[in-house]
Design a protein that fits this description.
The complex is a heterodimer of chains A (115) and B (111).
Chain A lengths: L3 E3 L3 E4 L5 E7 L5 E8 L3 E8 L6 E2 L6 E7 L2 E6 L8 E8 L10 E2 L3 E5 L1
Parallel strand pairs in A: 2-11
Antiparallel strand pairs in A: 1-3, 3-8, 4-5, 4-9, 5-6, 7-8, 9-10, 9-11
Chain B lengths: L4 E3 L2 E5 L4 E6 L6 E7 L5 E8 L4 E4 L2 E6 L4 E6 L8 E8 L6 E3 L3 E6 L1
Parallel strand pairs in B: 2-11
Antiparallel strand pairs in B: 1-3, 3-8, 4-5, 4-9, 6-7, 7-8, 9-10, 9-11
Classes of the chains: A mainly beta (115), B mainly beta (111).
Chain lengths: 115, 111
């Protein structure tokens, strides 16, 4: 089974801090994704990557950046955390770049609180 | 931007009853997928239906797709308390590698 592991289940940070959320997948998937999930809004795509060192903006990239130095690892960075970035963050991976019919495999999420 | 929208937002039924959730979307798609999310966990893929398919089954799940109405439905038959979860539809996005999710239907199955 595919395993997507997010480094923290819960995280509390302060306004202005630089925050790193880490995600690792063990199935050699080419595509990796970061979403945030808020009540009533569902999942919103922040960034995704279909190859090492490649990244594409999703629907809400402002205030975030990403890093993919290795195929299995995709990091989400909050450059200067703000309270409106308090949310559940979900990482996902899928196979076959360019294929639109592959399921995404999700981690269990990081619940991030910015105080 | 969200592509799929689920209806209803919340659904409460008794164990043994059937649960039907609907999804509407705005633009043409290649495929539509349904996911389930237990409280505090990540999403789990349930079923994928392609745009040239009208119906698909997987165990107690039945998915239909009507591309002319831009809508899909997920039917869970003979529901169990363990089916309590949120259910999301997702459609392929602009870049083919990504998907867009709706806000989900919260299903509660009472024992």
């Amino acid at each position: 089974d595919v395993k997507v592991t997010q480094s923290s289940r819960y995280l509390v940070k302060r306004t202005g801090e630089k925050v790193f959320l880490e995600c690792v997948q063990d199935m050699d998937h080419e595509n990796m994704f970061w979403y945030r999930q808020d009540p009533g809004l569902g999942l919103r795509l922040i960034y995704f990557s279909y190859d090492v060192k490649m990244k594409e903006k999703g629907d809400i990239p402002e205030g975030y950046s990403v890093s993919r130095e290795k195929k299995e690892r995709f990091s989400l960075i909050l450059e200067s955390a703000s309270t409106n970035q308090t949310s559940m963050y979900l990482c996902a991976s899928s196979n076959q770049r360019g294929s639109y019919d592959q399921p995404q495999h999700f981690g269990d999420g990081t619940r991030l609180s910015i105080l | 931007s969200q592509q799929g929208e689920e209806d209803p937002q919340a659904l409460s039924i008794q164990e043994g009853e059937n649960a039907t959730m609907n999804c509407s979307y705005k633009t043409s798609i290649n495929n539509l997928q349904w996911y389930r999310q237990n409280s505090g966990r990540g999403l789990v893929h349930l079923i994928l239906i392609r745009s040239n398919e009208r119906e698909k089954h997987s165990g107690r799940l039945r998915v239909t797709l009507d591309t002319s109405k831009k809508s899909s439905s997920l039917l869970i038959t003979a529901s169990r308390a363990a089916d309590t979860a949120s259910y999301f539809c997702a459609t392929d996005g602009k870049n083919n590698n990504d998907m867009r999710f709706g806000a989900g239907t919260r299903l509660t199955v009472k024992p």
